[in-house]
Amino acid sequence: MSYKKLTIHFLLVIGLAIFTFSQKSLANLTVGVAINDLNNPFFLQIVKGAKRKADELTNGKANILVVASDYSLNRQRWQLAQLVERNTDIVVITAADQQALASDIQKAIKQGTQVIAVDVSAAGVVATVATDNVKAGFQACTHLINQLGGVGKIAIINGPNVSAVVDRVDGCNQAIAKASGIQLLQVDAQGQGSQAGGEQAMKTILATYPDVNGVFAINDPSAIGAELEAQNRGKRNIVITSVDGAPIMQQALKNSNALVSATAAQYPDLMAEKAVELGYQLKQGQKLSQQLFLIDPSLVNKNNVMQYKGWAE
User: Fold this and answer.
1) What is the DSSP string of 18-78?
2) What is the rounded CA–CA span in Å between residue 190 and residue 80?
3) pLDDT higher than threshold 50 for residue 25
4) Is the predicted pLDDT of residue 72 greater than 50, yes or no?
5) N or C: which end of the chain has fewer CB within 10 A?
6) 157-177: b or e for each residue (b if 16 or more CB lie within 10 Å)?
7) 3-class SS at 240?
8) Can you give the pTM of this predicted structure?
9) pLDDT category, 18, cuts 50, 70, 90?
10) With pLDDT > 70 as the criterion, what percentage of the chain qualifies?
């Protein structure tokens, strides 16, 4: 049965919606996918990848439970407990907080549930699968610097204080450090990883440094927001790059007049596939060779966007 043909059951348990993707036969393996936002295509790709790998491992007999925290720590803590109570074998989690879930995760593991973090690290998990975010930031900012001819003023639109964001900014700073003609502007441009936040951050940047040439945004939504604000202010000579490879950026890069120039694409479905594979190995009594597994990003720009498959369903 394909991903699109799955039956969806809504189980409301004290206000918690658990989406159950099931086959006609009883499941041999139950995989929980704890994400942050059901409306974000990035997280939906995590669900897709987890489902695909679980079905591959069980000949289509896997049971998938999907919960979304809406970035609420308390909600995710409760959801994790509910997944454990339902005898979930593996939980693939995008943590709402990197540290605060440690005791909850350890409790889940002690009760037989293997918890694997994806996208961002989380204290207490048995393993983490993520994009090589340092490399992603480096790729995006190297492209930005090249587009500026190695000379210019660059600002960074930051985001939530999680490992993925910190590493992207670190990678960008590494690229800037190699370019003597680039000035990194010191501005508190916090975009919160959203389009609206990106617009506000760009407003702050332009108010402080109207002569800015380039902007690195930590994800595609904030980059798109930055472009909207710059365009609204008549700024046509700013180059913007980011990280994600999301559909909204894929479309934007097809516009030759867009200020966005490139994104370091992530592969959330592959991250989830690897996470389920690792959890399955642990359930089979195998040991993992390492705790951190990184997946390389790939730079998508206006020249190669037509060849980029994107996060296709």
Assistant:
1) EEEEE-SSPPSEEEEEEES-TT-HHHHHHHHHHHHHHHHHHTT-EEEEEEE-TT-HHHHHH
2) 30
3) no
4) yes
5) C
6) bbbbebbbbbbbbebbbebbe
7) strand
8) 0.85
9) low
10) 91
Which token pair is 245?
A: 């490879």
Which secondary-structure segment (H or E) carries 153? Answer: strand 152-157
Whether 3-125 and 133-265+301-307 share one fold: the answer is yes
What contacts 117, CB < 8 A, 6 or more positions away? 93, 94, 95, 125, 127, 128, 129, 130, 275
Which has the closest alpha carbon to 128: 311, 290, 306? 290
The domain over range 3-125 is classified in CATH as 3.40.50.2300: yes
Rounded to whole angstroms, how far apart are CA atoms 160 and 256? 30
Average pLDDT of the segment spanning 243-263: 97
Nearest to 86 by CA among 147, 153, 152, 34: 34
Q: How far apart are CA 268 and CA 258, in angstroms?
A: 25
Burial-class residue 142 by CB neighbours within 10 Å (0-12, 13-18, 19+): buried
Report the mean per-residue pLDDT for the chain: 90
The arithmetic mean of pLDDT across residues 36-49, rounded, is 91
Looking at domain 133-265+301-307, which of 3.40.50.2300, 3.40.1390.30, 2.102.10.10, 2.60.40.10 is its CATH number? 3.40.50.2300
The tokens of 146 are what? Answer: 């090249």
Identify the weakest region by mean pLDDT among 6-20, 83-97, 126-140: 6-20
pLDDT digits (tens, 9 = 90+) for 185-242: 998 899 989 999 999 999 999 999 999 999 999 999 999 999 999 999 999 999 999 9
Domain definitions of the chain by residue range = 3-125, 133-265+301-307
Pair type for strands 292-295 and 239-244? unpaired
Q: What is the mean pLDDT of residues 271-293?
A: 95
**pLDDT at 17 > cutoff 70:** no
